[in-house]
Amino acid sequence: STPILPTDQPPLMHHAVEEAVRLLQSGEVVALPTETVYGLAADALNPQAVAKIFEAKERPTFDPLIVHLPDKKLLDTVAEVPEDVKKVVTRLIERFWPGPLTLLLPKKPCVPDLVTAGLPTVAVRVSNNPVFKRVAQALNKPIAAPSANRFGSISPTSANAVLAELDGRIPLILDGGACLHGLESTIIKVEPGTPKALITVLRPGPITIEDLKLYAKVQRVTKTLLDEASEAPGQLASHYAPRTPLRLLSKPSDFTPEEGRRYALMSYRGEEKDGYVDLADWEQMMILSPGNGKLPEAAVRFFYVLRELDKLGVDEIIAEPMLEHGMGAAMMDKLRRASVRPSR
Ligand code: TXA
Ligand code: MG
């Protein structure tokens, strides 16, 4: 089985980082914490190492990987920033890197085709997680790292969740505790425009549409999922899927239990609205934001709660809708995808 190395004491951190770097240098994969979700890392410039990511995740090779840089100064080693968007891209990087923002940019030839699935663009970000940063800086190379789950499954936000997904398939997991944001990075592409550049959000995440609006005109991809698939190939209709069928309610009052079926409820704040939260209906109810009833707290717990409810073996997980602003946009996007049954 796969060992987990702790990082919560300086000598342990030192040892864990050393082990991870040693494995990455020898062309192996290692699961690392980031501020969004745990990633499955490999040397991005070594195609044999990158191939092991696809193998461990059972990820189809048409789905490209994000490249993480040790420092934002290294952007032009893997990507070309087009002249006509340089100004806005520079401002975005100044403001949001290191952090949970991924940019799609034309790739440099050194990036293997396997990383970008043959696309002319590369997805790039710089992580702000202290463990990830130490590993990346010691390795001093770009790191390819998708979320450390099996393809199509729920993203891991703890070392134990990585273990549940990939135990025995990878040589090491570094435990950096719970992820700060709990949802994957926001993925954008930037195009020139007058008077303002245009940002297209391909995957909503912790850097919200509201945040990005300060820098450019912003649009969300709302096209059919097939169209979208060509833009962010991993953003398939069925994604983030628990094994238990999931139903996203359009409004809380839309739920009527059927006799003999067992349900679990994913509730945003656990509030009683119009008699909606009738405990008798639920085998279990888990509240996303029990502490402060706010979206960032819900985001941190989102994948954890989904994973826990999936373990119950109920007939259906019922999810309450959330407001589509801030991090609510990303959670609603994920709930919609999770409610599409995989065709496998
Ligand atoms: O927060 C995150 O972004 C995490 C952490 C580990 O960094 N990573 C992550 O990677 O979520 P992954 O592979 O699970 O999701 C990356 C998404 C996929 O949907 C992929 O299709 C898309 O980014 N993507 C990657 N490169 C692309 C490219 N060149 N063009 C379009 N989409 C791309
Ligand atoms: Mg993923």
From TrEMBL:
Residue ranges crossing the lipid bilayer per the database entry: none
Pfam family, one: Sua5_yciO_yrdC
Record keyword Cytoplasm present: yes
Positions of ATP binding: 59, 147, 155, 203, 240
Residues that bind L-threonine: 36, 68, 121, 125, 145, 185
Domain YrdC-like, first and last residues per copy: 14-207
Compartments where located: Cytoplasm
NCBIfam families, A to Z: L-threonylcarbamoyladenylate synthase
Function, as annotated: Required for the formation of a threonylcarbamoyl group on adenosine at position 37 (t(6)A37) in tRNAs that read codons beginning with adenine.
UniProt protein name: Threonylcarbamoyl-AMP synthase
